[in-house]
């Protein structure tokens, strides 16, 4: 019984930290042409300088795992942008009233928001062909985040987000 409670607890907390991913790409792209990358020099990630460094380290690690090298003369550039917003509350408690009399029915129901509003972060990665200056792949990661967490937790979350987004690159055509 105790192990069931632990498993349910782990699943509950894991579901709260879900990373959602969207991606899109130009279907005419030959992804084998892209073996080197760099970042746009004037890139503004929208993250704090420390979080930006953590994210770039995560991206570099993912690119290295895929055999794509960092280069001063790259095949493509990576642009990263982020946005933080307050996610709508999805937890509510319903309070209802109802009554009937002589075949007449009626009712009122009210949803009351429960819990703290959650901050959500979107990080978008654009891959742009260096010669044609054309977007050929785009990935977006969405996750909940808290601003007042340890540097280790921030690094773990950014690495997890980068790993999940880049698991979709190159796309299976």
From TrEMBL:
UniProt-listed Pfam families: DUF4136
InterPro entries: DUF4136
DUF4136 domain residues: 21-171
Protein name according to UniProt: DUF4136 domain-containing protein
Organism: Zobellia amurskyensis
């Amino acid at each position: 019984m105790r192990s069931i409670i632990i498993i349910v607890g782990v699943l509950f907390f894991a579901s709260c930290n879900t990373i959602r991913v969207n991606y899109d790409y130009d279907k005419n792209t030959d992804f084998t042409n892209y073996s080197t990358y760099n970042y746009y020099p004037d890139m503004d990630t929208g993250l704090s300088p420390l979080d930006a460094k953590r994210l770039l380290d995560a991206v570099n690690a993912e690119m290295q795992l895929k055999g794509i090298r960092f280069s001063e003369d790259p095949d493509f550039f990576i642009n990263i942008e982020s946005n933080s917003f307050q996610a709508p509350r999805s937890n509510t408690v319903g309070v209802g009233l109802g009554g009937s009399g002589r075949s007449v029915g009626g009712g009122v129901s009210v949803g009351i928001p429960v819990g703290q509003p959650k901050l959500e972060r979107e990080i978008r990665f654009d891959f742009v062909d260096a010669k044609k200056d054309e977007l050929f792949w785009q990935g977006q990661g969405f996750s909940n985040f808290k601003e007042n967490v340890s540097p280790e937790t921030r690094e773990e979350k950014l690495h997890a987000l980068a790993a999940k987004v880049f698991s979709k690159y190159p796309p299976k055509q």
